[in-house]
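Task: sequence in, structure out. Protein: Thiamine-phosphate synthase.
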Amino acid sequence: MKCGKEELLLYAVTDSRWLRGEKLAGQVEKAVRGGATFVQIREKEMGREDFLKEALEIKAVCRKYHVPFVVNDNVDIAVAADADGVHVGQSDMEAGDVRRRLGPDKIIGVSAQTVEQAVLAEKRGADYLGVGSVFSTGTKLDADYVSYDTLKAICESVKIPVIAIGGITKENMGSLAGSGICGAAVVSAIFAAPDIEKAAGELAEAAREMVRQ
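Result:
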């Protein structure tokens, strides 16, 4: 499965801190029903066995709704779960090495904070870029801030789709309009919301409005 710009409109990133007695896969299903177009499982504190179990359950939900599903950082879990792909950061396995592990048909996303990182990731086979943090975020405390101008410069320097991440809400989404991104990755604005499906719907509408401008 490959991903185009449409699939990257509202990119939901999981966080099990807000389960509130629910299952992660159940929350993902609510997000997808609401309007999430892409799902990444990102669980830094989870052991391998639990991580793989959650990945398989979420993959089943994503297949049901025909939504791409990738694993954050962990190439082994992505292979074991037969996920649609993997998303790696600058400190993780390099995109070319990931491509050799996963094969030509899987999705590879790469985090980038500079034009140089973005160009290199594209050259080495990335399918899309995640750029951020574009706003302050409590989800990733060590995240580097990326300015609007840098975000725009990255979009202009590559041909692959670019999404923004970091502290994005339906209220601030519009300020990213005109940067060239095709969508936004969201964690807490979806999964910390009391009504996940409603929150995803409102974010998807805000994203559609943002990319139209």
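Residues 48-65 form the longest helix (18 residues).
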